[in-house]
Amino acid sequence: MTSAKTFTITQPTQIHFGVDIIKTLPLVIEQLGCARPMVVIDPGLQAAGLDRNVTAPLEEAGLAVTLYTRVDPEPGLRLADRGAEVAGENKCDCVVGVGGGSAMDVAKAIAILLTNGGKAVDYLGLGKITKPGVPKIMVPTSAGTGSEVTFTAVFINEETGSKGGMNGDYLYPDVALLDPALTLSLPPHVTATTGIDALTHAFEAYTSVQAHPVSEMYSLEAIELIAANIRIAYADGRNMEARANMLLASLLGGKALAMAGVGLVHAMAYPLGGLFGIPHGLANAVLLPYVTEYNLIGNLRKHADLAAILGYETESLPLREAADLAVDGLYQLNMDLGIPETLAELDIPADSIPEMADIALTVARPVENNPRQPSRDDIIAIYENAMEG
Q: I need a labelling partner for 78 at 20 to 30 A (CA). Which of 190, 214, 274, 327 fits?
C-alpha cells in the first residue's frame, strides 16, 4: 500500500524540451552567471561537424569556449581527470555535456572535480562528493541514458578494469536542454541500443524494490512511449514525433532510475563493458530478456503490467502466463531492432562467466534493488543462458 511506502524525491534539474531549444544555450549559460564554458562533446559529433551547432552560437554571444573531445564510449576515469585539468587551465566556470551518456558523465565529473579537487577515483561510490560543482548543463543527442537528470556518472577504472559510478546529489545537472532535432542523425543501430537502454532503466526502476508511486508514474510513461515509438524511430530516423517521444521517454526513464534505482541487468552489464568494451546500451539490450525471465517470480503482477504495455492481451490470462509474455515481448523487440540474441554474438568468451558473475555481485545497489535476490550460481546461469540463447 502507498501508506507503507517511505521515499524521498530530489529533482533539482531545470528542463527545457523542444525542437531547436539548443538555440537558447547561450542565454542559459549567461543566466547561470557564467562566461567561460567548457563544452564536453562526443568526438563522433565533432567529426560530423555537429560541434559547431553548439560552439558557434556561444562564440557569437561572446563566450570564451573551451572544447574537450576526449570521450570514449566506455570512458575511463583519466578522461575526467584530464578534462578537469584543461578546464582549470582555461578558467572554465561551467561545463556543458553534449552527446550520449559518456559525454554527459565526463562533463558531470569535470564539474565536480573543479570544486572538490583530487582525482575522479576519489569519488567512486555514494556520498563522497562534499561540494557542489560548477554549473552543469547537459545536452543529450541520443535517447538512452537519461544522464541529463541523474545523480550518477559511470566510468571504467583503468587500474582495475572494473566499472563503477560516482553517486551523489551534487552530480545532478543544473539544466538539461533536450532538443529532438539533435537526435535525427542517429543511425538505426544506435537508435536501437540507446532506446533499449532507456527501456531497461524504466523496466528496472518499475520492478525495483525501491519503487514508489512517483517513480512508477515515470517508469510506466517511459515504457509506453518506447513501446509505441522505438520501432518507428529505428525504421525512419527522420520521424520527428517518434524522435521526440523517444527523447522524452529517455528523460522519464532517467527520472525513474534516479528515484528507484536499477537492477540486475545493470549489474551484469557492467563487466561486459569493463572487461570487453561492450557499449552499455548494447549490453543491457542483450541481457534484458534473460534477466527479466529470471526476475518474473519476484513480482508477477508488475511483469504482467509490462506485458500489457508491450502490446499483449493479458486480462483473461492467469497471472504467470501474463507475466511470461513480458519476456516474449522483449525477445521480439530485440529481434525487430536487430539486437544480437546472445552474448556469443558479441564474442564474449564462455570461460569468463565466473569472473563476470563475481564482478556483477560487487555492484551492490543494483543487486539489492532487484526484485529477486540472486546467488552467484543464479548469475552464472543467467550468463550461460544469454551465451547460448
A: 190
pLDDT confidence band for 73 (50 / 70 / 90): confident
H helix or E strand, kind and range, residue 166: strand 163-167
| 166 vs 118: CA distance, rounded Å | 14
Domain ranges of the chain: 2-183, 188-388
Q: What is the rounded end-to-end Cα distance, in angstroms, of the chain?
A: 38
Average pLDDT over residues 16-37: 97
Per-residue pLDDT averaged across 30-40, rounded?
A: 98
Q: What is the pTM of this model?
A: 0.95
Residue 310 burial (10 A CB sphere; 0-12, 13-18, 19+): buried
Which CATH code of 2.160.10.10, 1.10.510.10, 3.40.50.2000, 1.20.1090.10 fits the domain covering 188-388? 1.20.1090.10
Grid cell of 217 as nine digits: 508514474
- Considering the domain delimited by 2-183, tell me its CATH architecture: 3-Layer(aba) Sandwich (3.40)
